[in-house]
Amino acid sequence: MNFFEILNKEEYKNTPIAIQNGEIYSISEIKSLILPLYKELLKNPNKKVLITSNNHFDFFIKFISAVLAKKELYFLPDLRRIELLNFEYNHLTQNDFSKTKKTEIKNSNENIDTNIDFEKTFLNLYTSGSTGTPKCVTKTLQNLIIEATDIFEEYKNDITQKPTAIATSTTPHHMFCMSFYIILPLCYVGKILFDAQEILYPDDCNLEDKIFISTPSFLEKFKKYEISLNTPPRIIMTAGDKLKDDIFEYFYNKNIPLKEIYGSSEVGVVAYKTKPYEEIFNCYKNITIETDKESKILVHSPFYTGDNYVLGDYIDLIDNKHFILKSRSDRILKIQEKRISAIELENFVKESQFINDAYCLKYGEKLACATVLNEKGQDEYLKNSTKLVKDIKAFLKQKSEIIPQKWRFLNEMPKTQTGKTNIEKIKTFFALNLSLPIVKETKHNLNEASLKLIFPYSCNFFDGHFKDFPILPGVVQLYLAHMYAQNLFNISIPTKTVKKMKFSHIIKPNENIELNLKKSDNSITYTYKLGEKICSSGVFSIDKKE
């Protein structure tokens, strides 16, 4: 049943459609929440509406209200990119429906005009911008409804034994999550329930018997932190980047159905596979494919506006419904007048005995490589970082004519909200003239984090501070506490807001240091400790979340 078709029908008013804070909301209750905003939007002459809410329930209500008011919808996950909207729009910021208690809802019998032309209801989403400026992708609501129908038909045997909740660890501001998390429950009322639970950490969520929409980077944490899956989700759907086979295998061995989905913001879902180490992707029902003259995949699909679309990926075409993904065209780099495959070079780097993960890119005119060291690599880095780089280069010279000249060693590869490698973040590490410590262990949840750090003697901030007696500068401690707090809690903290700084004990090279971070509504406290000794501490003020 389509939500918009049954909204005003008396016989469906008690049909459940959403879950917020563990409570089930019926169609009549959602309708009562929608009604005031719907009326406000009707009065507003501006046809363009921007929705930026990070609260899933609030997003859901505003999305439905704007569609019913026959507005053109815009979605922007990062308000720092708001300058991209160089036109007038109505920014929905006044209401936060997640703060309305269910007991406060007064049901209304007033009807809402549901005569909507889905083909003329336009949705504009922006790509994550991991490689530069985000691009606006425009689709019709009809495109997404057809896509949701295909998705449901493909997986209905896994999800329709009873009404099934759908939850996510990503954000509906992006196309993948929009199609699965927002459109699916609106198209299949009574079968799929929208679950507004915000899943930020794998050990802080209830996924029992749910459809789980996630990204490869989030799924990796289940294995990394050995998260219990005694109450597993009914099915996991993931997209955004390639899922590593060992992570795929981790869920497969636990008998949890997992679908790795191939697609893009522009065309939507294209194909999927269901087993680790499987090469062949299977296209969805209404998708057909071929290749262009360069062997790039050309997609024919009703999930977007247009007849066909050439993606930048090279494939081996089996037939018009099956293919093997070979490589991405945007990973071909021109270095020293020669073209090299970044993916191939990364695979060479990962064959090194010291490295777990790698990402190669062109930084300026040089080939650069960000790596994640394994335990052996960390030990060598502590002994002599210069020798480690020389050993890695010597190993690569046996495999490639062109090898990286610039290196950064990270504790993990940064990811965007959609699970893709965050290239812009990696570039900031190369632009930063500051060595990073070795992170031996990281633990974090919604409000607390703990990192076990070692600052190698070779770190550049020990130079001149001080001769024959190197100690960790206070400004470096402050910078790193600020950096880790922003990354782990996914918030922006103005640097000028630090207060109550105190330095109690010096930190020397190669010591085992623990950095503890504690988040409250309007501040984050950081503490560096050496055993039981507090080395330094301080407080960052943050804006209280509205």
Task: Tell me briefly what this model is.
This protein is α/β, with parallel strands linked by helices and 546 residues long. Among the domains are: 78 residues, GMP Synthetase, Chain A, domain 3 (2-Layer Sandwich); 114 residues, Hotdog Thioesterase (Thiol Ester Dehydrase, Chain A, Roll). It is built from 12 helices and 29 strands.
Task: Sum up the structure in keywords.
13-stranded mixed beta sheet, GMP Synthetase, Chain A, domain 3, 29 strands, alpha/beta, 546 residues, Thiol Ester Dehydrase, Chain A, 12 helices, single chain, globular, 6-stranded antiparallel beta sheet
SSE topology sketch:
Elements: H1 3-6, E1 16-20, E2 23-26, H2 27-43, E3 48-51, H3 56-68, E4 72-75, E5 90-91, E6 122-126, E7 136-140, H4 141-159, E8 164-168, H5 175-187, E9 192-198, E10 211-214, H6 216-224, E11 235-238, H7 245-252, E12 258-264, E13 268-273, E14 280-283, E15 288-291, E16 296-300, E17 309-319, E18 322-328, E19 332-335, E20 338-341, H8 342-350, E21 355-363, E22 366-373, H9 375-383, H10 385-397, E23 406-410, H11 423-431, E24 438-444, E25 448-454, H12 474-489, E26 498-503, E27 512-519, E28 523-530, E29 533-541
Parallel strand pairs: 1-9, 3-4, 3-5, 4-6, 8-9, 8-10, 10-11, 11-12, 22-23
Antiparallel strand pairs: 1-2, 6-7, 12-13, 13-14, 14-18, 15-16, 16-17, 17-18, 19-20, 21-22, 24-25, 25-27, 26-29, 27-28, 28-29
Helix pairs in contact: 2-3, 4-5, 9-10
